[in-house]
Amino acid sequence: MAPNQALKAFTSLSIILLAISVSIEAKPQQKQTNIVFYMHDIIAGQNATAVAVAGIGNKPWKALEFDKSAIWMTMSLVFTNKKFNGSTLEIQGSDMFSVKPREVAVVSGTRKFRLAKGYALMETAFANLSTFNSILKWNVTVFHY
Ligand SMILES: *[C@@H]1O[C@H](CO)[C@@H](O)[C@H](O)[C@H]1NC(C)=O
Ligand SMILES: *[C@@H]1O[C@H](CO)[C@@H](O)[C@H](O)[C@H]1NC(C)=O
Ligand SMILES: *[C@@H]1O[C@H](CO)[C@@H](O)[C@H](O)[C@H]1NC(C)=O
Ligand SMILES: *[C@@H]1O[C@H](CO)[C@@H](O)[C@H](O)[C@H]1NC(C)=O
């Protein structure tokens, strides 16, 4: 092979290799993010953070009104910090009170959490059984791109 033919062969081989490596690199790498936060679930008093939207007329509403073992939980976490600003996580599952820690699923998300999957562990850090005000510790593990 003449030297310039060898160079041409080498150049076309490196273009093919470059094309292969680019397509591999384009595949997104999965990241893991862990988020721990405390949610104030204050349903009574001056600084309420939660409000009942359904219930039995004139009866004081309680989360355990119908079923004492679990409630169905669905929640959107909306981020306002710099890193995940405007992104959301969608959390859903059966909140079984007797299980420690309770676990629900991270079913998806938006923006930086598109196609996210994961799980969230939850514990009651504080509860007032006369008002049902509570503080929940959340520990969310998310796999995302
Ligand atoms: C409600 O919040 C205000 C402002 O933080 C505080 O001064 C007040 O004591 C709170 N009230 C109750 C009942 O927690
Ligand atoms: C988040 O985005 C909004 C506009 O979409 C902007 O007003 C705000 O300053 C941003 N916050 C941070 C912490 O970057
Ligand atoms: C629970 O709420 C009642 C009514 O507001 C209050 O009197 C009591 O001090 C609270 N208990 C705790 C442990 O915060
Ligand atoms: C959060 O949960 C993970 C397991 O998913 C555990 O390893 C970690 O210690 C927990 N963090 C806190 C602060 O509870």
Automatic annotation (TrEMBL):
Q: Does the keyword Secreted apply?
A: yes
| Signal peptide as annotated in the record | 1-26
The keyword Ribonucleoprotein appears for this protein: no
Q: Which UniProt keywords apply?
A: Apoplast, Secreted, Signal
One matching Pfam family: Dirigent
Cross-referenced InterPro entries, in alphabetical order?
Answer: Dirigent
Localisation: Secreted, Extracellular space, Apoplast
Q: What is its main location?
A: secreted
Q: Pull one GO CC term from this UniProt entry.
A: apoplast
What quaternary arrangement does the UniProt entry report? Answer: Homodimer.
Report the protein's function: Dirigent proteins impart stereoselectivity on the phenoxy radical-coupling reaction, yielding optically active lignans from two molecules of coniferyl alcohol in the biosynthesis of lignans, flavonolignans, and alkaloids and thus plays a central role in plant secondary metabolism.
Q: Which family does it belong to?
A: Belongs to the plant dirigent protein family.
What is the name of this protein? Answer: Dirigent protein
The organism is: Dillenia turbinata
